Amino acid sequence: MRKELLRKTKRIVVKIGSGVLTGGGNDIDPSFLEGLAEEIAALRAKRIEVVVVSSGAVAAGRQALGLSDRPKTLPQKQAAAAVGQSRLMRAYEEAFSRFNLKVAQILLTRDDLANRRRFQNARGTLDTLLACGIIPVINENDTVVVDELKFGDNDNLSALVTNLAEAQLLLIMTDIDGLYTADPRKDPSATLINQVKTITRDMERGAGSSGTSVGTGGMATKLAAAKKVVKSGVAAIVFAGKVKGNLGRIMAGDTVGTLFLPSGESLNRRKHWIAYTLRPAGSIQVDAGAREVLAKHGKSLLPSGIAKVDGRFARGACVRVLDPEGVEFARGIVDYSSQEIAQISGHKSSDIEKILGFRYGDDVIHRDNLVLL
Ligand code: GLU
User: Fold this and answer.
1) Dihedral angle computed from the Cα positions of residues 170, 171, 174 and 179, in that order, rounded to the nearest 10 degrees
2) How far is the CA of 151 from the centre of ligand 1 (A)?
3) At 173, is the secondary structure helix, strand, or coil?
4) Which DSSP state fits 181?
């Protein structure tokens, strides 16, 4: 299975966490980067294109600023990232130049990817860099974003970049061997899971939060990232990044880390973008009947099935779609504003014009703009 999957893999995203890069809280570890460069050079020689998503700006900046602890306030983090990002890139440049590889820095914010034109622009830049044989090194543009606009963590960013780059595989380097049946730090009988077909709620519950003082992730965010990529028909592997040679072994098809298999039905890139990159501006709760036709029959959302609308948003916004219990089961782009929806909810589509004095169409969310989660 792995070998077959990897044979078709021509473009990969490699996500490197701060813990892997810094050796657990110290400054960037140059020997790790050199090993990484060597392995990426070997992949390039086999015509595999590699995009790197790298954390480590905050960790590197913290060292430079002489902060003993992880920066706590947002301005502190941003200052640390501003100092650290250039150090991070210098370290990449030095290590990669030994193997005749050039690197390019790309800093993204969630807003960049949520805007379709900027998304496509970033896509074009990535393609051009890869065609020139350059390794893009992507990080969040930490110095300009505020908390509520953040990707959250670089695991999430790496999943969105996988979609952006149309890569066939996401490799997440972390500080443990992969996903275990239980927390191996607490339970000695825990065993490594080699392959995951479906990410279950149990797995999600069992995945604790971050184990290190430098990264923001943990197994939970890795699972969330894996879930996003498998939905678009792409595989993900979570593995121990510090073990030298692991990247090469994985690409040779060896059983290293945990492989998350692509799910059967895959979202196209646009739907993936709606589901995961756009930020929902509000929510629409539907009744049981509407839930059924949306979830089971792939229909559009009509005003008649809407029970409640929350938040203020304009036509064209992305919203969460909730079932009668308040659980989100879909996301979509609305054709009417929140105020208009409040007026037409519960009514037949044929009454829209009578109520509003105009109509855009029958649907509040057209099926092409609706994604089941
Ligand atoms: N962007 C942050 C950094 O470079 C890391 C965020 C994360 O690791 O999730 O330090």
Assistant:
1) 80
2) 10
3) strand
4) S
For residues 111 and 37, give the distance between their C-alpha atoms in angstroms, rounded to a whole number.
30
Last residue of one domain, picked from the residues 232, 252, 271: 271
In our burial notation (b when 16+ CB lie closer than 10 A, e otherwise), range 294-311 reads bbeeebbbbbbbbebbee
Q: Look at residue 215 and tell me whether its pLDDT is greater than 70.
A: no
pLDDT of residue 148: 63
If you measure from the C-alpha of residue 201 to the centroid of ligand 1, how many angstroms do you get, rounded to a whole number?
26
CATH code, domain with 31: 3.40.1160.10
- Average pLDDT score over residue span 341-361: 94
Indicate if 172 and 201 belong to the same structural domain: yes
Nearest Cα neighbor of 172 from 259, 59, 42 is 259
**271, 290, 307 - which closes a domain:** 271
Is residue 152 scored above 80 in pLDDT?
A: no
Q: Which of 137, 161, 172, 216 to mutate to test the pocket of ligand 1 (most atoms within 8 A of CB)?
A: 216
- pLDDT confidence of 48, banded at 50, 70, 90? very high
47 and 114 in a single domain? The answer is yes
Nearest CA to ligand 1 atom 2: 55
Task: Tally the domains of the chain.
Answer: 2
Same domain, 230 and 320: no
Within 10 angstroms of residue 96's Cβ, the number of other Cβ atoms is 23
Burial environment of residue 139 by CB neighbours within 10 A (0 to 12, 13 to 18, 19 or more): buried
Tokens of 210: 């971050």
Q: Is the pLDDT of residue 208 over 80?
A: no
Shared domain check, 33 and 91: yes
State residue 213's pLDDT score. 42
CATH code of residue 338 = 2.30.130.10
Q: For residues 266 and 259, give the distance between their C-alpha atoms in angstroms, rounded to a whole number.
A: 17
The domain in which residue 312 lies consists of 280-372
Pocket test for ligand 1, best of 92, 105, 142 (most atoms within 8 A of CB): 142
- The pTM assigned to this predicted structure is 0.81
Query: Which of 16, 18, 70 maximizes ligand 1 atoms within 8 Å of its Cβ, making it the mutation to test the pocket?
Result: 18
